[in-house]
Amino acid sequence: QVQLVESGGGSVQAGGSLRLSCTASGLISSNYCIGWFRQAPGKEREGVATSHNQRGSTYYADSVKGRFTLSQDNAKNTLYLQMNSLKPEDTAMYYCAADRSYRTVSFGCSPKYNYNYWGQGTQVTVSS
To answer: Shortest CA distance to 108 belongs to which of 2, 26, 35?
Structure first.
């Protein structure tokens, strides 16, 4: 019954901003990790930013630190990724993902651990 639905992707010029949204269901009653991954054509999937739903621990990839920010609206069960100062290399399909395994939660929601639940993705394209 776990569902993750992303929105907010689009096309933007370099230096612009986008805000991605991930609305989650089926993970509310338990501790879990949730965040964003991305994959560009010909590239491996990478973790962008992840957090714990209650503890507030947050991971940001070095490539996005200072530009991307996670936030959440608890009333809407929605996680946001504010992306500023976008670069062409940020172009990718962005996926919302969640995991509630003890291992992932215990290690601060690091994206190096497997995430079990995935949304369909939303495309972000940054033009030069």
So the answer is: 35
Closest by Cα among 86, 96, 126 to 25: 96
- Find out whether 98 and 4 touch, Cβ atoms under 8 Å: yes
Cβ atoms 87, 126 nearer than 8 A: yes
H or E stretch covering 96: strand 92-99
CA distances from 8 to 20, 85, 89, 102 (A): 4, 16, 18, 30
Where do we find the tokens 């009653």?
29
Q: Is the pLDDT of residue 29 over 70?
A: no
Q: Look at the chain and count its residues.
A: 128
Which amino acid appears at position 16 of this protein?
G
Q: What is the pLDDT of residue 28?
A: 63
Give CA–CA dist 54/87, Å, rounded. Answer: 31
CB count within 10 Å of CB 88 equals 11
